[in-house]
Amino acid sequence: MVKGFSISATAADHKAMLRDILEEVELTRYEIGKAALDARVMAAMAKVPRERFVGAYDRHRAFVNGPLPIGYGQTISQPYIVALMSDLLELMPDSVVLEVGTGSGYQSAVLAELVKHVYSIEIIGALASAADERLKELGYGNVTVRHGDGYHGWPELAPFDAIIVTAAAPYIPAPLVEQLKPGGRLVIPVGEPGGIQQLMLVEKRADGSVSSRSILMVAFVPLTRSQP
Ligand code: SAH
After folding, report:
1. What's the pLDDT score for residue 5?
2. CATH code of the domain containing 101
3. Cβ-count burial of 143 within 10 angstroms (0-12 exposed, 13-18 middle, 19+ buried)?
4. Which atom of ligand 1 is nearest to the CA of 70?
5. Residues within 6 Å of ligand 1 by CB
6. Are 200 and 177 in contact (CB under 8 A)?
7. Is 104 assigned a catalytic role?
8. Is 225 inside any structural domain?
């Protein structure tokens, strides 16, 4: 066995991750317009075992405040970004959320701690089934994972209280805005795939009108499209 291969992260590493998130929130407070995130979001970040969502080779550094590879050229997002995006959605315990880009299922688990139900779509079949299995093993009965192209959203289950896209799109997909409830929020990285994007917050008001604003510069893996 490779030395160090099975070394796991510790509870102290998990605490350090929470401190790193607080520090980065503080450093970006002028961009994100707040000096602290919702306490419920931070409690979810404290609860979800990130080491269960990364590969065995990365388990020892599962709580580093950065993205990590999850196979198929994809990554589990940086903890600070997971926390920030969850916070921006202003979730309620009875919210129903759509996630595009299940990946490892980590963001889905964080959301599952905060809302009634999470519907998540992943375009890579192997990642979708691995995440589904992992979430079930961890007892997240309120997450439903589907293999497919999330660009189209999940029209049969729409509208949603909130939608989160964890892959970068060149523009905001119209079907996702359509599938947002009045009063709902959509968070999505928009910009050049493979480069830097703007994390956009889209809000649908009670009268159905839509506004959007840029929150922060980010770097996400691209939103890909299924071939017809
Ligand atoms: N939320 C994930 C982050 C995964 S990275 C986590 O916590 O681990 C983004 C994911 O989006 C990748 O797994 C990628 O395969 C997926 N993806 C890219 N384009 C997609 C699309 N059109 N529909 C659904 N998933 C997509």
Report:
1. 52
2. 3.40.50.150
3. buried
4. 8
5. 70, 74-77, 100-101, 103-104, 106-107, 121-124, 127, 149-151, 166-167, 221, 223-225
6. no
7. no
8. no
Residue 168 is part of which domain span? 7-218
* In the predicted structure, residue 228 carries a pLDDT above the cut 70: no
Provide φ and ψ at 148, rounded to 5°.
170, -175
Distance 58 CA to ligand 1 centre (A): 19
Evaluate whether residue 199 is within a structural domain.
yes
Strand, helix or coil at 226?
coil
With tokens 């688990």, the residue in question is: 109
Q: What's the rounded Cα separation, in Å, for the pair 169 and 124? A: 17
2 occurs within a structural domain = no
In this structure, the chain runs to a length of 228
Is 228 a member of any domain?
Answer: no
Q: Is-contact 164 88, C-beta < 8 A?
A: no
Report yes or no: 138 and 117 within 8 Å, Cβ to Cβ: no
| C-alpha 167 – ligand 1 centre gap (Å) | 5
Catalytic residue among 6, 8, 77, 86: 77
Encode pLDDT of 57-89 as tens digits.
999 999 999 999 999 999 999 999 999 999 999
* The amino acid at 215: I
SS3 17: helix
**Number of domains the chain is built from:** 1
Mean per-residue pLDDT, 132-149: 98
pTM: 0.96
In tens, the pLDDT along 37-48 reads 999 999 999 999
Q: How far is the CA of 18 from the centre of ligand 1 (A)?
A: 24
Rounded Cα gap, residues 190 and 212, in angstroms: 11
